[in-house]
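Bug report (template v2)

What were you trying to do?
Predict the complex of my protein with magnesium ion.

What happened?
Run completed; filing so the output is reviewed.

Input:
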Amino acid sequence: MKKPAVFFDRDGVLNEDDGYVFEISKLKWIAGAREAVKAANDAGYFAFVITNQSGVARGLYQEHHVEALHRWMADDLARIGARIDAFEYCPYHPDAVIERYRKTSYRRKPAPGMITDLLERFPVDLSRSILIGDKLTDLDAAQAAGVRGLLFSGGDLAQLLRSILPTKQDGLLKR
Ligand SMILES: [Mg+2]
């Protein structure tokens, strides 16, 4: 049984983008971000995070920092009963300082690889899915994957998402 998905960019969508965020103490949720994830869950959507983390390639922090931050985000989301089904990140960059991360990755947005990898692992109905990003590279990745992209330019993320997601009643009417 396929389900639609919300693909959330991370920095600038779920949390404030203060530039290469990796410390838990410095993470600030965007207004309504946690509630937006919950709204996606409640509407029967997968909720995914897809995030470029070239800070790893640049030697600013390591993969274990990214993973610890994602675990913390998952725990904090759980407090309100919200859940991310998968966190995908891309640590590579063509100009990496750290040699093993120096490459043009098919997963680095604007390439669609993080999305297409998720499609291999989860039964996603792409035609009803949406990607929310704060940069044009996010929208380019969406377009390349064949999913509707939406530019988030600030405000309350949950309010935005609720205006897009079908309500339970819509679902009942369709059936
Ligand atoms: Mg962003």
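What did the reviewer find?
The chain has a mean pLDDT of 95. The longest helix spans residues 63-78.
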